[in-house]
Write a structure and sequence with these properties.
Helix content is about 25%, strand content about 25%. With about 300 residues, the chain is of the alpha/beta class. The longest helix has 17 residues, at about 15-30. Mean pLDDT is about 95; it is low at about 55-60. Keywords: Hydrolase.
Length: about 300
């Protein structure tokens, strides 16, 4: 079955009404193109942090500028469902846990009638732990467009995260980001920035590693001290970029056939089948001598 999927590059702020208006606009554009699945960025409801770690906000100022904390079953998510209608979408937000205090950098996959899955970001960069607690699991789930897994931003730097989702049967992995340009020696053209390069290379590598469709959304424009690099894209299981926004805003739209592509790509070299878990033991060890040495230097 052939479907159209889209990934968003756009700017989302603390203004929820601005967020909803932009979501509605992009969904209207997607419907006009016959799109069935749309990936919105990290923190698309309420915006991301204004800066990271000790490179801008302190713990106190970060807390003052935190995005609104929303419940998964709250009215804000229901409003997104109303906008979604028959389109399946993923979208990032700040989740307020059941205890009423703990915050997570989170994402949800839904349409107008169903919440298919949710995710709490596991890997935290540059002091993000001052603002959010960390999640602790990766799980794929079934949707009308296929089996989907979700990640957020820095997660894409960890091959184990994508592999967990692929082993759980994910056919489409969505990587939602608020990925900025480098803080120092930023390239004049952000498309040439070294952090843009890393963002794009991670997307290609993770798709090819696991032979899955990889849908990378990202914020664009600026917020606080952060300049986002856009480059929303759809990557096929061979690591080929099917569509991208580059630095622009809008939708990267691609037509895909999951079953047919998987039959072709996995008929010969099938990476998940050809793994050797018996030699990977150290990958999952909590303590590793060479890593611990660098950790001590980083905190010196």
């Amino acid at each position: 079955m052939t479907i159209k999927i889209a990934s968003v590059s756009a700017n989302f702020t603390r203004d929820l009404e601005q967020n909803y208006a932009l979501i509605a606009q992009l969904l209207d554009e997607a419907r006009a193109e016959g799109v069935s699945f749309v990936a919105f960025p990290e923190a698309a409801i309420g915006g991301y942090l204004s800066s990271l770690g000790n490179h801008g906000d302190t713990v106190q100022s970060t807390r003052r500028s935190l995005p609104p904390a929303l419940r998964l079953d709250g009215p804000e998510i229901r409003r997104v469902q109303e906008l979604a209608g028959d389109i399946v979408l993923t979208i990032g937000f700040c989740e307020l846990a059941e205890d009423g205090e703990t915050r997570y950098n989170a994402a949800v996959c839904l349409d107008g009638s169903t919440i298919y899955g949710s995710y709490r970001k596991v890997h935290q960069p540059l002091g993000e732990n001052m603002s959010y607690s960390a999640g602790d699991s990766y799980r794929a789930f079934d949707t009308p467009v296929g089996r989907v897994g979700m990640q957020i931003c820095y997660d894409k730097a960890f091959p184990e995260a994508a592999r967990m989702l692929a082993l759980d049967g994910a056919e489409i992995v969505v990587s939602m980001s608020a990925w900025p340009a480098a803080r120092t020696a930023t390239a004049e053209n952000l498309q040439d920035d070294r952090w843009t390069y890393r963002f794009n290379q991670f997307d290609i590598a993770r798709a090819l590693d696991n032979q899955v469709f990889w849908v990378a959304s990202n914020q664009s424009g600026t917020f606080g001290s952060l300049r986002y690099v856009g480059n929303a894209k759809v990557v096929d299981p061979g690591g080929n970029i099917l569509a991208t926004t580059l630095l622009g805003t809008g939708l990267a739209i691609a037509e895909i056939d999951v079953d047919a592509t998987f039959r072709t790509m996995r008929a010969g070299m099938f990476h998940l089948r050809d793994r050797r878990p018996d030699v990977y033991g150290p990958v999952a060890e909590v303590s590793a001598p060479h890593v611990d040495g660098w950790r001590e230097l980083a905190h010196a």
